[in-house]
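Components:
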Amino acid sequence: MKPMIVILKDGTDSNQGKNQVVSNISACLAVSEAIRTTLGPRGMDKLIVDNRGTATISNDGATILKLLEIIHPAARTLVDIAKSQDAEVGDGTTSVVLITAEILKNAKSFIEDGMHPTIIIRAIRKATALTIKKIKEVAVTIKSDDDKEQRVLLEKCARTTLSSKLIARQREFFAKMVVDAVLMLDELLPLNMIGVKKVTGGSLEESRLVSGVAFKKTFSYAGFEMQQKKYTNPKIAILNIELELKAERDNAEVRLDNVAEYQKIVDAEWSILYDKLDTLHKAGVTVVLSKLPIGDVATQYFADRDMFCAGRVQEDDLKRTQKACGGAIITTVENLNNQSQQVLGTCEIFEEIQIGSERYNCFTGCPKAKTATMILRGGAEQFIDEVERSLHDAIMIVRRAVKNDSIVAGGGAIEMALSRHLREYSRTIPGKEQLILAAYAKAFEVIPRQLCENAGFDATNILNKLRQKHAENNIWFGVDIMHEDVTDNFIAAVWEPAVVKINAITAASEAACLILSVDETIKVPKSAAETSNAAKAMNMG
Ligand code: ADP
Ligand code: MG
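Structure:
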């Protein structure tokens, strides 16, 4: 009798071979099925309720996939590429998943026919390189020497991104706002220097852009209303010090046996606080911001001396203010005097403004860093959240376009052009590769087809028209969402930065290759010891 060789633990789940590849592909197709209806200007939104009951309405591929909590190991790859597309370029997250799924779907029949995955992978790699080369070849560079011209270009890109979102109707308004915000930043275009604040209520058009830092008025004590609410060239002190009376008592234990001593301690507390306040006042500070609370005595003190204060400011707001206005976060007032002005920040105008039912502290004309804050208005909370996500996509796209000003036409135009190019190329090569390249080429048609389907058009009809136009070398013809027809999307100004497409196609191909190359999944069970430990821990809890 042959000895039995046991390698894997009892209960290990292992699947392998052709069937495993096919089943992985099916899982990916199921994922893409879940989000395909969200693509494009006529795409639908998804409402997802998580296990805590929080509802999210979104149109963004990455957001939806993140919330779906997919557990299938191969299908998780799709979630990862959507996330990476989101991080890398910000837009095109639905497209990347759809293209991956379509490549896999077209490859599936080859696998079923017994073609080895390595051959398919090699062909896909080759096709990807060709595709990227083609995109770079056809992408149009718009000169950005002229500021006005660049603005127009950026606004068009932002508008295309926004046209597939919930706020498509207001895309003119928001495209302008996003471009304004991005152009306010410095060379490096740091994303975290654009703050987004949400105030529910009001209409979307009441949203506004502040060229500087803005944050909601913090909790304040009596006396606050007596403070001045507008300063030009204020001196701003950003503190990490508690300006409250009772604070000192908590730091020490004090034992007393008579009233006089108690009075001394109370006096000492007062004088400690007053010393701090006096130092701030003498240093010429006019606006005091603190991470920690500012009590009623301090508030009144500042009010009497024409100073403004805000306590319990959120940390990220405080950091952004510090970056924008200069100065440092002060943890002790000991060394603060007229000479040590570099620790104080400044800006052109500080004022408190009313937005809807909320009051905001605004710092504009900041000297150190360029920053901008968007204050969004709108009905429901979920709605504003989706607006924020949409604007994030648009901001990322505009940043991309500023850095790299080559663009292609969207609405399926670039995809059709690539498809045609690859199909023609495939005819020049012999062997199995020809088939695979043709299948890969066909995969790109998923974008225009899905755009049509989501808009309720006859996809076959439109695609035939598009193929005909592209055969005549009209490379920018794509779906005309308004008129159920095809049109030159370059003229129609449906523009997208070329990097979005390059990144999407590279990522999609990589993911497809990854999934095709996995022919075995092994699931190791939890060991008995671990399980019993977990059980014990649970009992103890
Ligand atoms: P993604 O998450 O991939 O960005 P979207 O839902 O934003 O998905 O849809 C993007 C697609 O919609 C792109 O292919 C883009 O070219 C297309 N698109 C956007 N605006 C228009 C328009 N006005 N007409 C036709 N197609 C458009
Ligand atoms: Mg988009």
